[in-house]
Amino acid sequence: MNFNKKRNWQDLLNLVEDYDYIYIYGFASAGKWINDKLNGKIKVLGFIECDLKKSTHEHNGTKVIYYKDLLERKITKNKGKVLIINTVTEISETWQKGLDLNPDLQVPLGLFLNDHPLSEVADVSGEFLGYFLNAVKESHSSYFLGQGIFLRSIDILVTERCSMKCQDCSNLMQYYKKPENIEVDQMINEIEILLSKIDHLYEIRLIGGEPFVNRHIYDMIAYSSNLKKVSYVVLFTNATVPLNIEKLKNNGSNLKKISFQITNYGEELSRQLKQVTEGLDQLKIPYRAHSPEWWTDSGRIIHEDRTKEELEVLFENCCGKNLLTLTDNKIYRCPFAANADRLQGIPHNKENYVEITASPKDIVKYTKDIKYLPACNYCKGRSWDSPQIDPAIQTKKPLEYRKY
Question: Is 14:7 a contact under the CB 8 Å cutoff?
């Protein structure tokens, strides 16, 4: 089957009728949604996940299957014709993995989402589900249809300050001794240069630290949400700081392009959760509020003496290697590399980043083709099968580290 054109929802329903079973690649909201739409029309054998930590989960009776377990036995065809529907936004990371499972056919969900019927799923509202499905649609269309230079997301570090001090923060906020806010003009200048080099950016993720400790955050939201080349602006917050509803409503922000990811650390820490969510409900801004998820022991700067081959394996299995971060006029592949470099916690190396003034070709090469970063030699790794640790343990003072 050729994937050189967009299709519609009915095309997928017609295709499914030719198969006996399906697997759904991806256990995020898009995967759960398509499971609910198709289960009953066809037998769904399971969700495929590279994240071992999700292998004990299920959704509406459909269980998660660990990718490596399924790969060992391949997909047995004596049960009938098998179809994989790939729902993962990082399609370049999972497409070949899906083919390696040897199904009769694998299809990208995003090419069939031009007239999809929305509905609520799990703990996600219909509005927020639309944001997820549009991410799948645009990511898959870019990958298969070649619609210019497309970036799935970019993290903008708007502050090093945080209202919490988690000793295991994978963004390394626990190391900052004199944290600073980023100025609005600096952020605007960096985004303008980046957008001049690419055709589309699905989402800008305003992060910290805690972004709402930067008193200019509302100006940053207003600017970001009115950019034509950007589909969404996502705020990552811990609900420790009240939301200024009137300022967000009246400062010129495009509320239709804004969403929130809220981590609820409990009443003692996320004490403004109710105020924040009620404000977002009032403004009809979609959000997802959830408990801390999938914390691993990756919040340390520790020098390792790894071989090239070991670094490539570490990078290949990293769940954070596509969390592009924009800071200091540079794009980094992950928040660890960005913050370790800002902290001077690793030796300076130009291979850890690409300048935003670089050519579009070089930016694409860095974001798509590299095998590992020199910074990987100072990271414990964030593989999908890393064991979980207790989240949000607070430290009273910044952690010590060697400064290069």
Answer: no
Q: Please tell me whether residue 351 adopts helix, strand or coil conformation.
A: helix
Distance separating alpha carbons of residues 56 and 66, to the nearest angstrom: 9
Taking the complete model, does pTM exceed 0.85, yes or no? yes
The confidence score (pLDDT) of residue 308 equals 97
**In the β-sheet with 330-332, what is the strand arrangement from edge to edge?**
287-290, 258-263, 230-237, 200-207, 150-157, 325-327, 330-332, 353-355
Pairing, β 200-207 against β 150-157: parallel
Q: Please give the angle made by the CA atoms of 71, 74 and 79, to the nearest 5 degrees.
A: 145
Mean of per-residue pLDDT scores for the chain: 93
pLDDT (0 to 100) of residue 273: 98
Q: In one letter, which amino acid is 7? A: R
Residue range 276-297, pLDDT digits in tens: 999 999 999 999 999 998 899 9
Identity (one letter) of the amino acid at 128? F
Q: What six digits make up the tokens of 320?
A: 């954070």
**Could you give the CA distance from residue 265 to residue 195 in angstroms, rounded to a whole number?**
35
What is the rounded CA–CA span in Å between residue 381 and residue 246? 42
Q: How many Cα atoms occupy the beta-carbon half-sphere of 347 within 13 Å? A: 7
Per-residue pLDDT reduced to its tens digit, 160-183:
999 999 999 999 999 999 999 999
Distance CA 126, CA 234 (A): 17
Cα 335 to Cα 324: distance, rounded to the nearest angstrom:
7
Q: How far apart are CA 196 and CA 88, in angstroms?
A: 27
Angle, vertex CA 79, rays to CA 74 and CA 84, nearest 5: 55
381: left (phi over 0), alpha (psi -120 to 50) or beta: left
Judge whether 67 and 99 are in contact, CB under 8 Å: no
Helices then strands (H, E): number in the chain?
Answer: 12, 14
**CB atoms inside a 10 Å sphere around CB 247:** 14
Cβ-contact 263, 292 below 8 angstroms: yes
Q: How far apart are CA 52 and CA 56, in angstroms?
A: 8
- In the chain, the amino acid numbered 145 is L
